[in-house]
Amino acid sequence: MSSDLYGLFVPEIAEAIVPYGLEAYRARQIAEWIYQHGSADFAVMSNLPVLHRQWLAEHFTLTTVTVLAEQQAADGKTTKYLLSFPDGVAVETVLMRQSYGNSVCVSTQVGCAMGCLFCASTLGGVVRDLTGGEILAQVLYIQQQLESSGQKVNSIVLMGAGEPLLNYDNVLRFIRLCHENYTLNLSYRSFTLST
Known about the structure:
Number of strands: 10
Strand order of the largest sheet: 3-4-5-6-9-10
Structural class: alpha/beta
Largest sheet: 6 strands, mixed
Helix content: 25-40%
Shape: globular
Oligomer: single chain
Radius of gyration: 17 Å
């Protein structure tokens, strides 16, 4: 079974690829392709030798999201996306355009177990936790949409479906990944976690 490199830090990617003969420095190149260029295809990673790209495709996968629906607010400032993962579960992710920058609201779980009466996310209970990579994939999808108009993600709120502190380890992994300079290079002050 193929291992997923999406959501790993550079040292973790290196640990995965070095035993198979790739140089450790290749891990940063791979991370930059995944996180900065939004690549889910090893074949386009042009600064890697062709044989390395073929080998990576044979042994590893890259988790991606598929857009099922997109809904634009009348004022043009808010866009809600329904994003699906390879196992078929879907979450909502929201882009909010403000005068001070673009903010993304991410989900941390599929569904929610908290039972808040005002929230529809809890109706079906919690299905599963999202991995750090799956939370990151939501933000990077929106980052790619913004880049086409010369914009970027400026801040992130963890206020979508799920209770972030019940998925503590994956949420911390996500925040730390966003902070890395080979990902989004966001300050820790750019995050708001609602519990």
